[in-house]
Specification:
single chain, 94 residues, mainly alpha, 2 helices, 73% helix
Length: 94
């Protein structure tokens, strides 16, 4: 969270509700697949993605004119970033 502004990205404060439910789900699936080690890796991966991807989405939305707008869940953010990366070159052609 504190490292993102160093790289020019927005500082994202992850919400407790999102972290509890999505992070808990990552831990449960990680535990089912890899035991304690899988739960730890799943939690760390979730924490990384729930902070980094919304920071990337803030910069993408800012270039489209939506200032300080983002989303919370990793699936929503990933879909928005994919649409942005796919549609942005098309919009620039017109």
């Amino acid at each position: 969270m504190f490292i993102l502004p160093i790289f020019g990205l927005a500082m994202i404060l992850p919400g407790m509700l999102t972290n509890f439910f999505a992070g808990g789900t990552a831990g449960i699936f990680g535990n089912a697949v890899g035991g304690r080690r899988g739960a730890i890796i799943g939690g760390i991966a979730h924490g990384f993605f729930i902070t980094l991807l919304p920071a990337l989405l803030v910069t993408a939305f800012s270039s489209l004119g939506f200032v300080n707008a983002t989303a919370t869940d990793v699936d929503t953010v990933t879909a928005a970033l994919l649409y942005y990366w796919i549609l942005s070159p098309i919009f620039k052609m017109f």
